[in-house]
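Hi everyone, sorry if this is the wrong subforum. Our group has a chain we'd like a structural model of before ordering constructs, and none of us has done structure prediction before. Sequence below.
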Amino acid sequence: MTPLQGKRPAESNTILSRMMNPSDANPLGIVHGGEILKMVDEAGGLAAMRHAGSPVVTVRLDSMTFLEPIYVGNLVIVKAMVNWVGRTSMEVGIRVEAEDPMTGERTHTNSAYAVYVALDEQGRPRPVPPLIIETEEERRRWEAAEERQRIRLAQARR
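Answer:
Right subforum, don't worry. Here is the predicted structure as tokens:
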């Protein structure tokens, strides 16, 4: 098998944004958590696909705390990028912000880490390209993700 060409984290960088509507919210105008979770998974999945160059499936979404409410009329911005890769899996870091489109003020509302597995044409796990780490920030993210992956694997063995 030919070795896969490595990719930099920035090559997976994904940003999704969407204006929140009344149909996305409860009667108080607060956006349902499920709407945000869907956007988180979409952005994370796109970042993973960009890195893998193939379809992916979500394996895990680590716990996500809703730090601040998001309201109807806010622009939700979801940023995702690959932090770490294994043989067939990838961890993607995801950040959610709410923007008041009239003032431009942004609030960090959520962060999450998700794990995706790359699939081949038959729907089986396939190898992913190595991640090329060049900066101290990328190294810090890699090392933190590696530790989270060790914890995930230990939890799965229980």
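For your construct planning: The domain at 9-157 is CATH 3.10.129.10 (Thiol Ester Dehydrase; Chain A). The chain has a mean pLDDT of 96.
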